[in-house]
Write a structure and sequence with these properties.
25 helices; 76% helix; Sodium/glucose cotransporter; globular; 682 residues
Length: 682
């Protein structure tokens, strides 16, 4: 594969490089991808069986399968957001950014993805206010603006899923291949299979439970790498030693555009461009991804905004702490004989493929580090891919099958079509990743192009659930003309900046910013201008009338199924751990004024967070040309460690605290059944 030279900002001769030497046997790669994958699938199937038999929720209901009965609490939604937004690209590209730009890289990566999640809390509140019965954001578009707009945004949603799935498999398989030598095509096809198994049988709630288990592993491995790099490693072992090694790296391989070529400064011209690209990519990846809308729809109305607030805060620590740890470790240890490409640095192709993190893990922990990174990347791929499989199944079943093929489709048909869609897409994911591989598209290329192709749809999608004056003409003109202008800016920018239009140059950060910013701003301005020429006065009654397909099925049929001749209680006993007042409070509908207050709170929170992580902290250090002292670098690292520990607390412990009564009720019912079985046998 040719070198794309996406990250060749360091002043180093890249004409010499070595092959990345795998640390593990191929059998380890197959063992993780197949063995661990099906082990987790088996665990998820068992949990789904327990849920179906000992709670009031069953994945046989279409509402439960696609939207988890709209009852998921904020802690689990927060965990799901962190897990689903932690792609393989999150771990690999944030490390690559640190390796290439220094401390600014992972900060901008985190900022570029977290503020959109926080802002999505506002959109989620509007969904609960104006379209609580919707299953996809495309249903809202169809009801409000008709078939043409619906088809346009089905296209955008499909492109988003393709980019996300491509990023997941291309990045994940590249890591598996680099660490184990496993055949990369085999990895493309084997990775989605185990995921599809438990998604087919468990639906959206199974993905939430899987997200929680994956998040435990994710944070545990992040903690291991952090303690190893800054505490026990013979190669680094302390923050001060890391600072010394980075200072030497700035002499040996200075970063072009960084103050004094340093890796410990926010004054990074390339890092700032990367940050702008990350922001655009983040907006596109959040607001155009049905997976995020799915979580907003699935969450309980009282906790939707809280979940996205915590999710944005918690996720920020993942790329910041992980990328800073492994990315900077890779740069600091580049001259270490244990480095996989020693005595040469990573090539531009290896860097763009996301191999900085595997290189650092190999030096810091040897084979153990390789296994740990292999496992955490595998978890990232499976968790995010499960969200995409559910998203695709919802689009196919509700927006294609039920809308254009069988408008009177029952809940059982929707579930069946969802199963078919999941299986078909799992196979197509492998085919799609293979196509990308054959045409030499790698993780870095996909990351930058995501913002380019999807930015024109962001503002029109937001305004669909937000702005009553939005018109059909405004929506279509903004999303289509904005895309055309964005494409023109992409080509012209690439030509002017790089001198030629080709695949490598189209994914340069500068080209990505030109196109993404043009598409985002022009689409928004055109949408608003055309709408205001002849504004609508939509009351959202049509979108509020979108009905849940079988909302009562989840309770009524389940209640009949689990009430027994042997004196077993109905499924409402699942709530026996709750006092009646608590249960009534949970089930009570939320009035419009309450949701409006939630929306305003989300607006204040997301605005404050955006100002802090984009303006208040990084820009003064950028314009002052400040290079971190050793003491300030120690403070910076300490903040990242504290933040990632708090994130783990929110994501792992909060779901248990919120749902311990329900879990206790399930265990109690399970124990009662086992006691009855043993008594009958005796």
């Amino acid at each position: 594969m040719p070198s794309y030279n996406l990250y060749s900002v360091a002043s180093v001769n890249m004409s010499q490089f070595a092959e990345f030497k795998p640390l593990l046997n191929q059998s380890v790669g197959y063992g993780v991808v197949v063995g661990v994958g099906f082990f987790f699938a088996f665990i998820m199937l068992c949990l789904t069986a327990v849920q179906s038999n000992f709670s009031r929720f069953t994945p046989r209901s279409s509402e439960e399968f696609t939207s988890a009965s709209r009852s998921v609490k904020p802690g689990l939604v927060c965990c799901g957001i962190v897990s689903a937004w932690t792609w393989s690209a999150t771990l690999l590209q944030s490390s690559t950014a640190a390796y290439t730009f220094g401390v600014s890289g992972p900060w901008w990566y985190g900022a570029g993805g977290s503020i959109q999640v926080a802002m999505f809390g506002m959109v989620a509140a509007k969904v609960k206010m104006n379209a609580n019965g919707a299953h996809t954001f495309l249903e809202i578009v169809k009801v409000r603006f008709g078939t043409t707009a619906h088809i346009v945004f089905i296209f955008y949603a499909t492109v988003c899923v393709l980019v996300v799935c491509g990023s997941l498999l291309v990045g994940g398989a590249a890591t598996v291949n680099a660490l184990t030598g496993m055949n990369i095509i085999a990895a493309y096809f084997l990775l989605p299979i185990g995921i599809a198994v438990y998604v087919v049988f468990g639906g959206l709630r199974a993905t939430f439970i899987c997200d929680w288990t994956h998040t435990i592993v994710l944070f545990a491995i992040i903690y291991i790498f952090v303690f190893r790099a800054y505490g026990t490693s013979a190669e680094i072992g302390s923050v001060s030693k890391m600072y010394e090694l980075l200072a030497q790296a700035a002499i040996d391989v200075p970063v072009t555009g960084n103050e004094n070529g340093s890796y410990v400064t926010m004054k990074s011209n390339q890092g700032l461009v990367f940050g702008a690209s990350a922001l655009l990519s983040g907006f596109a990846g959040v607001f155009c991804d049905q997976g995020y809308w799915q979580r907003a729809i699935a969450s309980h109305p009282r906790g939707t905004t809280k979940a996205y607030m915590l999710g944005g805060l918690s996720w920020f620590a993942v790329p910041w702490a992980f990328g800073s740890c492994l990315g900077l470790s890779a740069r600091a240890l580049q001259s270490n004989p244990l480095f996989p490409t020693y005595p040469f640095p990573l090539s531009a192709q290896q860097t763009s493929a996301g191999l900085a993190a595997p290189a650092a893990a190999a030096v810091l922990m040897g084979k153990g580090g390789a296994v740990a990174l292999l496992l955490v990347v595998f978890m990232a791929v499976t968790s995010a891919a499960s969200a995409e499989l559910i998203a695709v199944s919802s689009i196919v079943s509700y927006d294609i099958y039920r809308t254009y093929w069988r408008p009177q489709a029952t809940g059982a048909e929707i579930v069946r079509v969802s199963h078919y869609a999941i299986c078909a897409w799992a196979i197509w994911m492998g085919c799609w990743a293979t196509i990308l591989y054959k045409v030499n598209i790698d993780l870095g290329w996909l990351y930058y192009v995501q913002g380019i192709v999807l930015s024109p749809a962001v503002i029109p999608i937001i305004l669909t659930v937000w702005w009553s004056k939005l018109t059909r003409a405004g929506l279509l003109c903004g999303s289509i003309i904005g895309a055309i202008l964005g494409m023109l800016a992409w080509m012209i920018g690439c030509w002017k900046i790089a001198g030629a239009i080709n695949i490598p140059n189209l994914a340069l950060p500068e080209s990505a910013v030109c196109s993404g910013l043009t598409g985002l701003l022009c689409s928004g301005l055109i949408t608003a201008f055309v709408s205001l020429l002849k504004p609508d006065n939509y009351d959202f009654e049509g979108t509020r009338a979108i009905a849940m397909l079988d909302g009562s099925e989840n309770h009524d049929s389940k209640s009949d199924a689990v009430s027994g001749e042997k004196g077993e209680k109905s499924s409402s006993d699942f709530e026996e751990g709750l006092r009646p007042a608590e249960a009534a409070h949970q089930d009570a509908p939320i009035d419009h004024d309450t949701l409006l207050r939630v929306f305003k709170r989300a607006a204040w929170y997301s605005s404050a967070m955006s100002a802090i992580v984009i303006l208040i902290i990084p820009l003064p250090m950028f314009f002052s040309h400040y290079v971190f002292s050793e003491r300030f670098y120690t403070f910076w690292v300490s903040c990242s460690i504290v933040w990632v520990f708090l994130s783990g607390t929110f994501s792992v412990i909060l779901p248990v605290v919120e749902s311990w009564k329900e879990m206790a009720a399930i265990v109690k019912r399970l124990g009662r059944l086992l006691s009855t079985k043993l008594y009958i046998k005796s």
